[in-house]
Design brief:
By secondary structure, the chain is of the alpha+beta class. The chain has 2 domains: about 35 residues; about 110 residues, Immunoglobulin-like (Sandwich). The protein is built from 1 helix and 9 strands; from the N terminus they run αβββββββββ. The strands form 2 sheets. Strands 3, 4, 6, 7 and 9 form a 5-stranded mixed β-sheet that branches. The protein has a 4-stranded mixed β-sheet with strand order 5-2-1-8, with no helix packed on it. The longest helix has about 30 residues. It is elongated. The chain starts with a helix and ends with a strand. The relative contact order is 0.21. About 10% of the residues have low confidence.
Amino acid sequence: MRRFASSVQFASHRRAFHMWLAIIFCLSSALFARPSAAAEEIRIELNRLEEQGPNCRAYLVIANPGETAFWGFKLDLVIFDRSGTIMRRLALDLAPVRAAKTTVKVFDISDTPCSGIGSMLLNDVVDCRDASGPVANCIDRISASSKLTVSLLK
């Protein structure tokens, strides 16, 4: 009888051990899993500013390495002067943002000399849609950078 009790106790410990191994495996899989393509980072870079009469023409490089194309992608962009005061606020439509593609978008900032711009703030994404509809938290998918002394912030 004693031998039977110790084999039952061994089986119970073995089940507990296998249960812990399964939990550890699930947690490690979740920690080291590659993010889905839908959550891939979209990189937006301020690449160039040029005077265009009384306007400033801006060039943005948009890199979408993911597998998701965005049919709606509109930014709320705030332009600051060199002292940090808001000069302009723009709704900037970058759509379509194609999947696995880098593109350049050009826009003019009216009645604003490029030399007066100190920085730009990507304040929010006001429209973000893929083929299945609205996408939440698009602002979190974006990384912003600048090749210029004028910074592009998020």
